[in-house]
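**Entry details**
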Amino acid sequence: MGYRSEVVLAVSKDLMPHFLTVLAKEPEVRTLVFQHYSTLNEDWDGEGTFLVAWKEIKWYPNRAPIAAIEGFIEACEDNLIEGFDTQDQGDHMRFVRLGEDNDDYQEKGTFHDWDIFMNRTLSYAMRPSSHSVLGLDKRGGTWYSGGRD
C-alpha cells in the first residue's frame, strides 16, 4: 500500500550530461530511472530529449533516489547547475507529479510544458439496463430513441 503518484521527468539534450552526473553519483537513482520506469525514451522529441515516467510510484522525498532527483530539479529551478551556461536552466527540464489526492500536483520547469501537463478525466462504464427510463431501446449494439432506426 502507501501513497502513490504519477511522475514525468524530461531533460533536454543540453542538460542531460548534468543529470547523468546525478545518476553516476547515486546507484539507487540509476536503478529507479533505468529499471523501475513505466516509460523511458532517450530521444522522446527527436532532438535528444530524455523522458522517464513512473506510474503508481511511491514518490517520497525522504527516499534517497527521490531526494537526489528532486535536488537536481531544484538546482535547475534555482539556476545552480555548475557548468551549464544559461540563465534559465528550468527551461531545459520539465517535472510533473500527480498524487492520489485531487489537490496534490507539482510542476517544475517549462521545457515542453505544452506537451507535458496534467489532464484529469472522469471515467465511467456504460451499463445498459433491461429497460430505459428515457424511452430508448437497444438494437444491434446501438442505443436508439423512439422511432429512429
